[in-house]
Description:
The protein is of the alpha+beta class. Among the domains are: 4-49, no CATH class; 248-403, Heat Shock Protein 90 (2-Layer Sandwich). 57% of the residues lie in helices and 19% in strands. The chain is rod-shaped and about 210 Å long.
Amino acid sequence: PFTRKDVEQARQGQVISRLVEGEGDRYWEVMAPITLGGTAAGAVAAKFSLERADRLGSRTRRWTLLLTAASVVVMGLLMSLAVYQVVDRPIRTFLEAISVLRGGATQARVRLESTDEFGTLARQFNEMMARIDRFSEELQTRVKEATAELDQRYQEVQRLNRLLFDMQRRLGHAERLAVSGRIMAEVAHEVGTPLHSVAGHVELLREALSPELLTPEARRRLAVVETQLARVAGIITQLLDLTRRPPGEPDRVDLGQLVRETAELVGPSMAAAGVTLHVTTEPGLPAVRGHGTQLQQVILNLLTNAMDATPPGGDVEIGTSTLGDHKQVVLEVRDTGGGIQAAVQARIFEPFFSTKEAGRGTGLGLFISAQIVHEHGGTIDVTSDGARGTVFRVVVPAAEPGA
Length: 403
């Protein structure tokens, strides 16, 4: 409500207005003077409620806040999109290209067509990668060429080493043959000449003796002399044969075929002795490089010894197989005889050592066989069990393809 003071001020021509706030209500009070002839004749008082204005202002403030918030969100989204397009996407593109490059693919490229700094950087990166790609291809080509040349040189070195080893082996063998040949020639001359003379005199003695003196006992003794003379002559012949090897250049030899051929040779003798021969050869057996006649001599000697050691009704097995991914060929001869004692096994390959009865062997068969196997770059060994007989095992290297 207006006070007296307000009325006095209105009389003086002043306009009075103020905001009045009550409980739950707000309004404006206005008092304006009415003048007549320059004199205040009265005053007009009015009261205006602000409830509607407050509602309108509140609604306006809410909309303002909502629009402001929406504007902030939209601006944020627009700025994020702009940052993604201008900064984040190019950086991700670079990182993907670098990741591909880290994996070893030099064909990695950055796909950016913009004209800003990132586009310039992308073009520089792509040019750099193109140079690296060309350099990598050139380097790989040179490495392949160098590797091929190195492999060729390595193959040549291997071939030269094999030739050198073969030449050294042949030279050593030739030196041994030269020395032993001279010795054997002297032995043949020094022993063979009187031996033939003794044999001739024995034959003359047989013819010169009268029937009265040539009794059965005398005949038996002369037969023993002739047999031993023939044995000595056989030993000299074998020693001379040993010094006359090798017979020509080595060749590719099918050891399986050689085993089958030798088995056919001794088959009748085996059957006559009551011994069953079993032959097993592995299919696709690689060839060996050597002398077929010498290797057949080894097979024949092992089969003959196995037959001699096996009683009637027994079995002799001969077979071939491979070792070390077909890089070695194995020959095994197994009998069902009484076996060989350990002390005898240690000397079985010595010259002039024999377990056969006197007059049945020279003791050179296994010695010569071992020499042949060693000259072919192989090994020969024996294992024996009294309950299961004896096994001779020969291992020789397979021939290289094309050798």
